[in-house]
Amino acid sequence: MSDAKKQGWEITAEERDALYKIIFSRRDVRGQFLSDPIDDSVLSRILYAAHHAPSVGFMQPWNFILIRSQEVRKKIHTAFTKAHKEAAEMFSQEKQEIYKGLKLEGILESAVNICVTCDTSRSGPVVIGRTHIDTMDSYSSVCAIENLWLAARAEGLGLGWVSIIDEAELKKILQIPEHVIPVGYLCLGKVSHFWEKPELESAGWLPRIELEKLVNFEYWEGKPAKEHDSFVKQLKEDADFPLTAE
Ligand SMILES: Cc1cc2nc3c(=O)[nH]c(=O)nc-3n(C[C@H](O)[C@H](O)[C@H](O)COP(=O)(O)O)c2cc1C
Questions:
Q1: What is the pLDDT averaged over residues 152-165?
Q2: d(Cα 49, Cα 64) in Å, to the nearest integer?
Q3: How far is CA 135 from the centre of its chain?
Q4: What is the mean pLDDT of residues 101-124?
Q5: Is the CB of 198 within 6 Å of ligand 1?
Q6: Residue 36 has pLDDT above 80, yes or no
Q7: Which of 6, 79, 151, 204 sits 20 to 30 Å CA-CA off 70?
Q8: Residue nearest atom 2 of ligand 1, based on CA coordinates
């Protein structure tokens, strides 16, 4: 008997399919938030899922600032609106028209906002695995965010990541100290529905890239050699895998 089986941690085909369903049906939610509150038990489970993410040197650099007060959220929303206007100017005339029509946050409507941070000093100056690439600590907080996002989807909740905010302004509003990075500002709540496709795809902003075009062999531009033919064929065959998982 395998160790996994002994522990009761063997994954059944049904459980595997449930995970794929969660992954493929996860969406970034901006406009479908309902005003209903989230149960404490649900929020607690989701935060535990985030806290069990992998982290460089087991540093666990994250904190979760829960923002329920409308007063604080309004300040964040004002910072978003300023950055959003500045952002619009950065795109071509044609893209600006689409950009201005997009809803890119649910700061005020969602049940709760969560700022996930990275405390770069969490376990001292020398961290296993961060010795040669400084950004590994922030990547760990991103892993926590992905866990949080998937757990939210499993609980039937929507989550939207808001990044169109000046970082210094965000830190000032939330009183975040110098050595702490606000990695993700998230809006979480019950939703009316989940869209089938990313909103940016439906709006004609960008399409999903075919996976086979993103897979290289041995080197950055490494093309598939003869021995990779069957794998490339498999990738093409599975192109509709997300749909079959639903
Ligand atoms: C790091 C990061 C920052 C993002 N920032 C924003 C944002 O400011 N506003 C927004 O509406 N969506 C934001 N998104 C969501 C993406 O637009 C979205 O993930 C992408 O279009 C694919 O859609 P999906 O998440 O529904 O699959 C962000 C996503 C990530 C990972």
A1: 98
A2: 12
A3: 17
A4: 97
A5: yes
A6: yes
A7: 151
A8: 161
pLDDT band per the 50, 70, 90 thresholds, residue 245: very low
pLDDT at 246: 42
Structure token pair of residue 37: 């509150």
**Burial profile 69-101: b = 16 or more Cβ within 10 angstroms, e = fewer:** eeeebebbbebbeebbeeeeeeeeeeeeeebee
Å from CA of 168 to ligand 1 middle? 21
- Residue 163 token pair: 């990044």
Residue in 66, 64, 56 with CA at minimum distance from that of residue 123: 56
Q: Which pLDDT score is estimated for 242?
A: 72
Residue at 122: amino acid letter: R
In this structure, are residues 115 and 67 in contact, taking their beta carbons and an 8 Å threshold?
A: yes
Q: Given the CA of residue 184, which atom of ligand 1 is nearest to it?
A: 1
pLDDT, position 120:
98
Long-range contacts of 194-203 (CB under 8 A, 24+ apart): 194/25, 194/27, 194/29, 194/32, 194/153, 194/158, 195/27, 195/32, 198/27, 198/28, 199/27, 199/28, 199/30, 199/102, 200/102, 203/98, 203/101, 203/102
Nearest alpha-carbon partner for 50 in 141, 132, 113, 158: 141
Q: How far is the CA of 198 from the centre of ligand 1 (A)?
A: 9
